[in-house]
Structure formats: C-alpha cells, structure tokens
Amino acid sequence: MFEPTKTKLEMYETMRSHFSDACNKTLELKKSNLKMKATEIDHALDGIELPSTLRQEARKLALSRYQDWKKNQKTKGFPSFKNKIAILFNNQNWHLRFDKGYLKVGIPTIEEGNLNIDKYVPVKANEYSLFWVSYLLKNEMDKANRHYQPSYEGISKPKKGNGQLYYKNGKWFFSFSITFEMKQTDKKEKAIGVDRGLRLVAVAGDANSGKYLTFNGRHIGHIRRKFARLRHALQKAKNTKALKRLEDKEQRIIKYWNHVISKKMVRFALSCGACVIKIEDLTSIRSMKKFWKLSDRNINSWAFFDLETKLTYKATLAELRVEKVNPYKTSQECSKCGEIKKSNRRKDTYTCSSCGHKENADINASFNIARRPSIVKEDNSAA
Predict the structure, then answer these.
(1) CA atoms within 13 A on the CB side of 134
(2) Which residues of 267-298 are buried (b: 16+ CB within 10 A; e: fewer)?
C-alpha cells in the first residue's frame, strides 16, 4: 500500500488486534461448548468492533484450526492466535478498481458509513501484478504488455479469490489470489512420458529421439529422512509447536522442488516439440503401501499429487496437455522390442533378454509411458 495516514495505521492495527480477539474467543467458546452453532458464535462475537463479515471470517478460521487440533490432539497443543495475525477477507468483500491513474483496493473497515470510492486505498503493485489485475477487471488481456505470452490465449473466466491484509517489514500489504479456467485444445501430436520413482524422483523421456531429463532423488531422500528423525524426536519430547513449524517447513520444501521439477519438465517437452505430457495414473498408489520395502518410504511421502497439479497448470499455460496412462508393467516392458518380463529389471537397470537393450530402468519406463495410449474418461451423465 502507499503510505497510509496515521489514522489509517491506527485503524489497521486495531482491526488486526480485534480480529485476533475474535479468533481466540471463538476457540474458547467452542472448547467450553462443543455443540455451539456457528450462528450462536457469531452472536457472541457481536461485541467485538469489526465488520460482521470479518467476524465471520475470524470464526471460520478459528473453527478450522479447532477441527485440525481435534484430529491431531496427540501431537498438537490447543491453538491460539497471536496479535499480529493477518486479517482475512472473502472474495465478495474486497474490491479493486483503477481511479485517477491509481490502483485502489476497497475493504470493509471499522470506519463509519458504507464502503465507497472515497474509502478505497491506493496500492503499489509491480508490472506483472498490474497485468493480471487489469485482466481481472477488464476481462481482456493487454497483448502489448511485455508480460503477455501467446499461450495465455487459453485462459478464460478469471475469478478473484480470498484476500488478506497483513503487516511485514514496516509496511502494510494486501495480497489475494486469482484463479482461471483453461480452454481445452484438441491437438494430438508428439508426447513425452514422465516416470515418477524413488532414486530418480522423476524422469521425462522422449521415446522417438531417445532424449531424457532426470531429477535425482538422493538429496530429497536425505531431506525426508532428516525431517523424519526430527519429527520422531519432537514427538518424543511432546514439543507440539516445534513439530508444527517443522511440518510447515517440510511442506514448503516439497512445494519448492515440485515447482522446479514441473517447470523443467515443461521446458523439456517444448524443446522436444511435444504437445502432450503423459504420466502414470497413480490413483491407487497409496493402497500399495503395505507391499513396499521400508527403503521405499520416499515414494509414499513425496507429494505426487502436488507435483501433478503443478505440472498440469504449467503445461496448460505452455499450450501442452497432461494425460494419464495405465501404469501396468511400464517398468517391466522393453522400450525397444516390447517384451515384458519381470526379471529384465534388476534394481536401477533394465536389460532385455530378447533384444539385449540395456537402459536405466526409470528412463526405459518413461519411454514406455510416452507410447502408451491415454486413459479416456467415461461420461456417466444421464441424458
């Protein structure tokens, strides 16, 4: 935000404190009366000086934390909210608009009177953010903008998500999310295959050219084992707060590496001239957990769904499709002659007993995935 007046600063600080009070009071009410309904909690929060929409957001946030605590009471202490909490706004209660050359945000506050343009606050935003905000407000992309890419033509129906007002490094910030749908394309051309595993977290392979891209899992396995040891020690010491911080840190690391891997996969697909990225359908992967060795824990602990999600949206932005294939014996099939034999794979190496082809097992599997037919979803809708 631009430099707010002293009055605005005091108001934001008061709102933040009251929002925290509303969250903590909700927790106290729920703890003392488990059957208390949301409407009853809202009525009990009426005395806190906040717009009704913010009291409701505080109640929703607190109840969410309460339910999370209820499921994990053995490892988590009863939740509480600090004074410097971010103030949450649902997507219907904040607004953006351009006014006199400025981007302004309108949020419900404790000021008297209804929200009008005079109460909108000017905000600073970089060029990239302004590009997407302009698209959100006008529903039309500025193709002359340097941040525009032809692949963005596949984007449609932008929608604003929830927002939050928070204080960091001496400044007030307002952040929000934008979601959008992607237009479907009918291009069916070259495909690469992606195999996900243990020693190599992911392998992208082009069966036609023989090119491949690998993502080694050694350092990731080291990270997961390190966090597992720390988690065990904290659980033993019953340090629930540190355990929660450790969990959050581990998830951030997972998401970071999945961003890196998915980004490189898309670039590899584009360099190969592919239009489709094929991956194994791992819907039932966790049901196989009981058959795995202890050393395979990283497969189950690695966030495959998160990687799949990031790969899908990055691919769509690059005008690529992500399609699933049947994973049945992709690691036992020869990518050269098609022979399927379990004994051909020994640890990291695949050696075909029929044609003599020798290849890294995960790379061989990625080539097989690239050639597999995509799974077609059945339409079960009634006429």
Answers:
(1) 17
(2) ebbbebebbbbbbbeeeebeeeeeeeeeeebb
CB-based contact 224:301 (threshold 8 Å): yes
Residue 203 in tokens:
């392998």
Bridge partners (DSSP) listed for residue 182: 155
Residue with tokens 């339910």: 67
Query: What ranges in the chain are assigned the alpha helix state H?
Result: 6-32, 38-44, 52-71, 127-138, 218-237, 240-271, 297-301, 304-317, 361-371
Phi, psi torsion values for 23, nearest 5 degrees: -65, -50
pLDDT digits (tens, 9 = 90+) for 132-159: 999 999 888 898 999 888 778 778 778 8
- CA gyration radius, the chain: 26
Tokens of 149: 């890419």
DSSP string, 120-162: -EE----HHHHHHHHHHHHSS--TTSTT--GGGGGEEEEEEEE
pTM, rounded to two decimals: 0.54
